[in-house]
Design a protein that fits this description.
The protein has two domains: about 240 residues, Rossmann fold (3-Layer(aba) Sandwich); about 150 residues, Response regulator (Rossmann fold, 3-Layer(aba) Sandwich). Helices cover about 40% and strands about 20% of the residues. The protein contains 13 helices and 16 strands. The N terminus is likely disordered.
């Protein structure tokens, strides 16, 4: 399994080398108003990059998470900012295109201090070597364990896909009373979500289950083949590592073909409230489960109350589930910046040093606590909560399991 991860990382590294070569090296120095050690920083402000998907396959969730990041920016600026400076997000759309993401990174790197997010495993994996070389603090709304191997400046806002998949699958296996010999399924995009596969393989081996995997392409529109494969195997649950439109298509196809297993997802990122307006509403509300690093909107924690209060003051439109993750992840980013702000000075070196010396960071219940001391390649959180779609809930989800550490996660030392 380690070999599989290293091979995937090597392939991304080759892609990255070509992409960066095409983009140039940006050796012209920092932008006006910033020192060479602190691009994007002036006496009054800090610019942070937010490279996301607004119009591509992950656009629906990208917009949700951006709303949470911006909400944190508005709230923190109203309370004095970070290091006595106001924070500004510089937002760019990579359209789920890795080459576009790398190009945007090279364009922004000289003008922003850090990358508050680079959405997606592919885009941030491609940028990872430069992030380390440039000493740029970065985070992402993706949880691929390869991101934590050999990098010095990246944190993930929650458990890796591997940990989340083990925890969620094991929880459903126990809840449903699956027996040795039963089948479980995985539908995922070819070439990505390797951690989800690894996690489900661990559960299958531990409980004597038969794992049926179906790979699909981002360009696919027909899920009849995977549904038939799962139906032949009588799959009791299916993990879906696919985008929002494909999740809706898969579940609708499964329902029409008389296949109604428990539907799982390694994160809430492929869910959208619009899925509850379709014919599969009942299946989603009664038989689907999403591993989550963040709490539900109505949680009674101090952190959740902070987000609700900020939304009441600065938010626009209706609340969405991305507010919690976007706000919580940005809050962690802000805490690291504050820790690196020595005597009012903010440099990339000081922030990287501060990040390297931090053991844990928490958000008062908005998200699971992160432990940066677990070691290279290890998930920075091993707690996983479980959400279930609910059309009557404020943001479309109800929390049915508070964050917990699964027995198999603890046993396997993930």
């Amino acid at each position: 399994m380690k070999l599989m991860r290293a091979t995937g990382a090597a392939a991304v590294a080759l892609l990255t080398t070509a992409a960066l070569a095409a983009c140039g090296n940006n050796t012209d120095g920092a932008s006006d108003g910033a020192s060479a050690g602190a691009p994007g920083v002036t006496e009054d402000s800090i610019k942070l990059g937010h490279i996301t998907d607004l119009t591509g396959v992950w656009g629906p969730v990208g917009k949700k998470y951006l709303s949470g990041s911006q909400l944190w920016v508005d709230a923190v600026n109203a309370n004095g900012g970070i290091c006595d400076r106001t924070v500004e997000l510089v937002v760019r759309d990579h359209k789920s295109n890795i080459q576009d993401a790398v190009t945007i990174y090279r364009e922004l790197e000289r003008d922003v201090f850090g990358m508050q997010t680079i959405l997606g495993s592919g885009p941030i994996l491609a940028a990872a070597p430069s992030l380390t070389k440039d000493k740029v603090l970065a985070s992402t709304y993706a949880w691929d364990e390869m991101l934590l191997e050999g990098t010095e400046t990246i944190f993930l806002p929650g458990a890796t896909y591997e940990v989340a998949s083990v925890a969620l699958t094991e929880w459903v296996v126990k809840e449903r009373g699956l027996q040795p010999g039963d089948s479980i399924g995985l539908v995922r995009y070819d070439g990505i979500f390797e951690g989800v596969l690894t996690g489900m393989e661990l559960v299958a081996e531990e409980y004597g289950l038969n794992l049926v995997e179906q790979k699909v392409q981002v360009s696919d529109s027909d899920f009849t083949g995977p549904v038939r494969a799962f139906k032949r195997a009588d799959a009791k649950l299916v993990m879906s590592a696919i985008s929002t439109p494909h999740l809706g298509t898969f579940v609708s196809t499964a329902s029409s073909q008389g296949l109604e297993p428990a539907i799982l997802s390694p994160s809430p990122g492929n869910f959208d409230e619009s899925l509850l307006a379709g014919p599969a509403k009942q299946l989603f509300e009664e038989n689907s489960y999403f591993a989550s690093p963040f709490t539900n909107w109505d949680n009674d924690s101090a952190g959740a109350a902070e987000v609700r209060d900020a939304f009441e003051k600065y938010g626009e439109g209706d609340p969405n589930y991305g507010l919690m993750l976007g706000y919580g992840q940005a809050s962690i980013f802000g805490q690291i910046l504050e820790a690196g702000c020595a005597n009012g000075e903010l440099t990339r070196d000081s922030v990287v040093d501060a990040f390297g010396s931090m053991d844990t960071v928490a958000t008062n219940g908005i998200m699971t606590e992160l432990d940066f001391s677990r070691g290279d390649g290890m998930s920075q959180s091993i707690e996983v909560g479980i959400l279930q779609p609910d059309g009557s809930a404020t943001t479309g989800f109800t929390e049915i399991q508070e964050p917990f550490i699964s027995d198999l996660v603890a046993k396997s030392g993930l």
